[in-house]
Amino acid sequence: xxxxxxxxxxxxxxxxxxxxxxxxxxxxxxxxxxxxxxxxxxxxxxxxxxxxxxxxxxxxxxxxxxxxxxxxxxxxxxxxxxxxxxxxxxxxxxxxxxxxxxxxxxxxxxxxxxxxxxxxx
Length: 121
Description:
This protein has helices at residues 3-24, 26-32, 41-61, 67-91, 97-120. It is mainly α. The protein has one domain.
């Protein structure tokens, strides 16, 4: 497994944990950020989507031919933090939700650095 693949693989566990919490305990994760919802069905569906994305990360992380996916995820995961921060500012949401995206940004940084190290190796 390449360094970048390893970062993708391990990032899948974060996505898996988020998916499990949203699918089976949607209120618990949102209460941390002070968010209340009247219908948790959509959150459970989002949790299912995250579970599927975690599986993709596990599979892709083990296959070096998925390198273009690793590269794309650097940009998409890194964008989660500023996009969420802008939504917090614009919609006056609880800033605690930004903490959920810090892990995404750190995962993107890890993958970017791993891609660079793989290129040099």
